[in-house]
Amino acid sequence: MAEARATGTGDGYEEVLIGVRGGERPFTVEALTDPGRIVVAIEG
């Protein structure tokens, strides 16, 4: 199980923390456009 929380914005950036139960897990991050977004894939 994973949980994400936005922690704030500033200077055109937004910070999001992602927590995963059960300890560290492998993940990948990909930047996509149109619309702009970040995709975080957590394995397991």
UniProtKB/TrEMBL annotation:
One Pfam entry for this protein is AMIN-like
Q: Which InterPro entries did the record assign?
A: AMIN-like (IPR056303)
Q: Which domain of life is it from?
A: Bacteria
Show where the AMIN-like domain sits.
3-42
Q: What is this protein called?
A: AMIN-like domain-containing protein
State the organism of origin: Blastococcus brunescens
Which lineage is the organism of this entry classified under, starting from the top rank? Bacteria, Bacillati, Actinomycetota, Actinomycetes, Geodermatophilales
